[in-house]
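In response to reviewer comment 3 from the previous cycle, which asked for concrete evidence that the modeling workflow produces usable outputs, we include below a single protein chain processed end to end. The sequence was submitted unchanged, and the resulting structure tokens are shown without manual editing.
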Amino acid sequence: MSDKRKKELFLFFAVIVAVNLAMGFSDGLFSNYFKDVYHTDGRERGLIELPRELPGVITFFLISAFAFLGDITIAILAQGIAAIGLMVLGLVTPSFGVMLVFLFINSLGVHLYMPLKDSIGMSLSEPDQIGKRMGQFSGISFAVLTVSGLAVFFLFRFGVFSFASKTKWTFVVAAIFYLVAIAMMIRLKLAVGQMRTKREKIKLIFRKEYKFYYLLAIVFGVQKQVMLVFGPWVLIETLGQRVDTIVLLGIVASTLGIFFMPQLGKWIDRFGVKKLLFADAFSFIFVYLCYGMLAQRFNGGALAKVGLPVLLTCALFVVDRLSSQMGIIRTIYLKSIAFESADVTPTLSLAMMMDHVVSIIVGVTGGIAWVKFGSHTIFYAVAVLSLINLAVAILVKDPRKLEVRLQ
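The workflow returned the following structure tokens.
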């Protein structure tokens, strides 16, 4: 490996560290923030997902409009936008409506960066080690989330941080880490060079050959929304767990991810995408069937809201977080079937738009279903829908030889 590539990878790892520190101090805490500060119920929690997920719908058009700037420059802007939203939420406690505006701004920056990090990461990786590098990127992300989770846990447990205080310091700290990420990304841009960071304007690409990837993205939009919103809400609303418990579970998931994600990357390179798509499908089916059975029994009073049933729900929360990170399988699948490398970023962005349209629908309808029919109905429905993942795993061809074209 050349010294230039080593420097590029080092800087990208530094960006990953800073961004995930910011995420660790903010993203997993929003559900408790909504509950503690604005006293939201299940229906309102679902409605909040409209401004939070809407940026995912418009991300494609923003990336397309600013494509002339290049992936890295857009990523810098994205982190700046995310920092602004968090800084305002941290320094003041606005009215519910104003809070939604700045939640939207923060979410816009976060979503804008999502497809770019995968595209940048794969471009910096060696052609024959895409899976390994993507696994390493995910592994370091989990390691950082573990460290930040431990910090947040103790800061909340000992009262240094609190959502009852005027200043929400956890959001302020997160915004500062986004600023650090900007500094590292600027250095990466200088190291990579201007030619490798620019691209022509992105066009909306629909290829029938990518149909299975689009389908996986849509289904994941449903699964992701349940994982981010309704899974934690079982712990928060049904079982009355506080922010320190949610953070602690995030720490456990992140610690396991440190070892799981690099191994997953190696499995992709060793066994191929097709076999790992089967694992991805079975993980979601298992998790949501179990969630549904537990939630139904909690709602009906058949299970106590203490002891072993709570521990089982916490374990599902952790497994669900790990399952959601298996998205690198879908990303590498796309990379392996792409006709040209220029297709990857627009297709990732288009897939994000698709999954977020679904996420908004699921957020709103799921919140209503939670109140009217019980939370278990949401999980059973998603378990059934996850059979689509299994069908795709059966139908796709296994591209064992990844043809990677670096920009």
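Residues 331 and 367 are 29 Å apart (CA to CA). We consider this sufficient to address the reviewer's concern, and the full set will be provided in the supplementary archive.
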